[in-house]
Amino acid sequence: MLHLPAPHFRPDASYAGGYDNASHAARRQIAQQLAEKNGLELTRDWPMPALGLDCYVMRVPGDHDPEAMARQLSSDPRVEWAQVMHYFDGLGHNDPMFPAQPAAHAWQLDRLHLVTTGRQVTVAVIDSGVDTEHPDLRGQIAHSRNFIENTTYPAEQHGTAVAGIIAAVADNGIGIAGIAPQARLLALRACRETADRATLCDSLSLAKALDFAIQHRAEIINMSLSGPSDRLLGMYVDLAASRGITVVAAFDERRDAGGFPASNPFVFATAAERDAPAAPFHAPGRDVPATAPGAQWKLVSGSSFAAAHLSGMVALVRQLRPAVPQQELWARLRGAAATPVADAANSSRMDACAVISWAGGTCTCSCEPAQAGITHAAW
C-alpha cells in the first residue's frame, strides 16, 4: 500500500485531479521498482481514495514465504504496509426442504410491515452474484457490480439467497417476503462460487466492494462471510462504522472470535439459532426459504442467512430512525431481549416487535415477548 500524495486526496474521498496522471505513473513506477527489487511480479493496481491509498498486487514466487515477503516490503519507507492476500468463505449449507419462513412467525413480520418495510434504506450485499432477474427480486436492486476480475456477473446461489432474505418482494403472489421488502439493494459481487458451490472471496475484491458501498452511501453492509483478520478490510469496516453505516456479518464458530469481520468490535456479528452461543446476535438461520437462481426457491441454513435476517431488521429500524447511532441501535436490540429461556434453540430471545415499537414510537404487534428471534450479548 502506498499513500496518495496530499494534493490528490481530499477529505470527501475524491481526487483533486484525474487519477491517470503523472503522479499515478510515478507511484506505479515505485511499485514496479519494489517488485523488481524483491523478485516479485506486479500484477494489478487499484486506487483506494476512501483510505488515501494505492493498492498494488504482486505475485510471490513459489519458493518464497509470502508472510516474510510482506514483512520485508513493509520495512521499506515508501510502503505504508504490505499483507498477504487473505481468502474468505461464505457460511451456509443446504438442508432438507421445510416450507416455512421462520421470521414470519417469530418476528410477526406481517405486523411489522404495517409500520415499516425498510423503504428506501440502502443495503449493500457483499457476496457472490445475485440473480437480478429473479421474479422475487425484480425492481429491488439499485446497482449491481462485479469486483471479480476477468469474469462476467453471474447469478449465484449464496448471494441470491442472502439478497432474497433481506428484500424479496412482498405481496406479489409468489415465493417469499423479505424482512425489509422495500429496501434498495446494492448487489456487489466480491465472491465467486466454485464447482461444489463453495463461496470464496479475497481481500482485494472485498475491499473494492466495501469502497463502493461506502462511496454509494449504503446504510447497511451485509457480509455473510468469514475469514482471517485483515488490516485493509479492517480499515474499511472502521471507516464504514465511523460514517454511521451498520456492518452485519456472519459469526463463524470455527474461528477465534467468530472470524473476521465478525471479530471487529463495530460489527453486528450474527449466528443461526442453536449455533455459536458466543455470537453477539442470533437470528433465524435453519431451514429458511430463500430465493435461488433461475426463478427458483430453496431452503438454506447457516450463519450467512442469520446475518441477512439481522440486516433486514436493521433496515426496518432505519426507515423509522435513519440517524440512529450505532451504539443505541445495539443497545435497543439488546434491551428487547426477553427473559432467557433454556431450550435447544435459544439462550435468550429478542422481541422484534418491541424493537419496532421503539423505533416507530407506537405499539407494534401485541407488545408481548415474541417466541423466538434475535439473541444478544454485550456491546
UniProtKB/TrEMBL annotation:
Keywords: Hydrolase, Protease, Serine protease. InterPro entries: Peptidase_S8/S53_dom, Peptidase_S8/S53_dom_sf, Peptidase_S8_Asp-AS, Peptidase_S8_His-AS, Peptidase_S8_subtilisin-like, Peptidase_S8_subtilisin-rel. GO terms for biological process: proteolysis. SUPFAM superfamilies: Subtilisin-like. It comes from the Bacteria. Residues 118-337 form the Peptidase S8/S53 domain. The active site is at D127, H158, S304. Pfam families: Peptidase_S8. One of its GO terms (molecular function) is serine-type endopeptidase activity. Gene3D superfamilies: Peptidase S8/S53 domain (3.40.50.200). PANTHER family: CEREVISIN-RELATED, PEPTIDASE S8. Belongs to the peptidase S8 family. This is S8 family serine peptidase. The lineage of its organism: Bacteria, Pseudomonadati, Pseudomonadota, Betaproteobacteria, Burkholderiales.
